[in-house]
């Protein structure tokens, strides 16, 4: 496993070692010991999620003000542009974002620690997205920042109008968001 810090060093691109030949490929998609060593801390995952979305679907920018979730995300079919936004008020990168294309061919994963907002847009005809979380989903604590917030100015790398859920249509401006304080 190779872990590469992004421009926000706590957000890491995780790349597995892939063994392939004419018959196909094999890789270890997750190993707790290797993952903890790669990010430099002990992380315990409590929930796995799997979603399927069509081209142009944008989900996010989601976070929980209590029970914040770290997420290890990957794509097993199709391609997405995945985004993490630093919501830690005490962080020197507060309000900054990083994005990476995750797809079924590059096998990259993104580690999004607690204290970040998270979202993605589907670039392929459809995509299946898997993610592990460090805490349980708590809808009463979930918040959403508008995907097109002018302060964040995220380049989603998608041309066109994305398809949004009712929840995501109600996303608030970053400056109005209920942000928590995490180190």
Provide a descriptive summary of the structure in words:
This protein has a single domain, classed as Jelly Rolls (Sandwich). The strands form three sheets. A six-stranded antiparallel beta sheet has the order 1-2-10-7-12-5, with no helix packed on it. It has a five-stranded antiparallel beta sheet with strand order 9-8-11-6-13, with no helix packed on it. It has helices spanning 32-39, 166-169; strands at residues 2-5, 12-15, 18-21, 24-27, 47-54, 58-64, 71-77, 79-86, 97-103, 109-112, 116-122, 126-133, 142-144. Strand 1 (2-5) and strand 2 form a beta hairpin. Helix content is 7%, strand content 41%. It has 183 residues and is mainly beta. It contains two helices and 13 strands. The longest helix is centred in the first third of the chain and has 8 residues, at 32-39.
